[in-house]
Amino acid sequence: MAIEEKKEILQISVVIPLYNEEESLEELCAWIERVMADNNFTYEVIMVDDGSADSSWDVIRKIHEHNNCFHGIRFRRNYGKSAALNTGFHASKGDVVITMDADMQDSPDEIPELYKMIKEDGYDLVSGWKKVRLDPLSKTIPTKLFNWATYKMSGIKLHDFNCGLKSYRSKVVHSIEVYGEMHRYIPVIAKQAGFKRIGEKIVQHRARKFGITKFGGIARFINGPLDLLSISFVGKFSKKPMHFFGSIGMIVFLLGIVAVVVLGIEKFSVLRAGMAAPLVANSPYFYFALVCIIVGVQLFLTGFLAELVGRNSSTRNQYFIDEEL
Questions:
Q1: What are phi and psi of 44, to 5 degrees?
Q2: Staple partner for 199: which of 55, 123, 150, 322, CB 3.0–4.6 Å?
Q3: At a CB cut-off of 8 Å and minimum separation 6, what does 95 contact?
Q4: Is residue 151 a contact partner of residue 188, using CB atoms and an 8 Å limit?
Q5: For the chain, domain boundaries
Q6: Which of 121, 194, 135 is nearest to 164 (CA)?
Q7: Taking the model in full, what pTM does it have?
Q8: What is the pLDDT of residues 241-263, one digit of tens each?
Q9: How far apart are CA 126 and CA 206, in angstroms?
Q10: How far apart are CA 7 and CA 99, in angstroms?
Q11: Quick one: average pLDDT of 291-295?
Q12: What is the rounded distance in angstroms from the CA atom of residue 243 to the CA atom of residue 62?
């Protein structure tokens, strides 16, 4: 009788995106290894090297040779944090996936509690909240504004959407796609995919020990709001663009028609009174009607074309199934 080999179930996958972090990797991985051993976790650590120009990959290779629970994925060039996270997510095999930055500002000592909140407290996603931040005001004030705007638009009550320290149920990371610079809004993406049990945990924010920040920069203050608008629109209307463009187009078109009717009534009233009627083009209603009709038609056609594109998309009937019996 054949005996089937029992595969070890991984409890935790730790995904670490990194770019030029050669100084901190060995210390960080030793810390993670110590935490996992103290709690008897079965685990893997996936370090995604986002095209580093320093010796980060050599350090990852050395760590892997010491402990094969530590894996590495190397990009040929720099693609950004979202790409690194997305690749790490789809390579992960653990029941719970935990993300953290490689700069040692996130503490691996938070891992056991983050794991417990997923497995025992029933959350789909737990986001860290760096309640006490060690960043300058030039960074903390815009961050607070972004967090407030994201909360208002998404309805997710989190204080720190962009914290790198998060834990996820494995279903979450294998159901979502993170692209562009959408890593700031992963809780929003998860909610749109049907994972609504989103919690928060106060975590320690440690001072950066080596170098300077590698991900982000001033551009994030411009790209952040644009990404939020984009993800909100795509989440609501990606499968029904005509509902957005067509509705607005119809309203604007009808406003134009109303302006035309007003022009007609005004012209007819003047003629009926036996007075010389002014040129229609001299009325502001004429230009208002012209703009509204043209814009309304364009919006309607945009929605129509978006529907045609959507119907030919390979994901037009892609829905998230939670369980089957």
A1: -145, 150
A2: 123
A3: 9, 10, 11, 12, 119, 169, 170
A4: no
A5: 12-237, 241-311
A6: 135
A7: 0.74
A8: 787 788 888 999 999 999 888 88
A9: 19
A10: 24
A11: 92
A12: 54
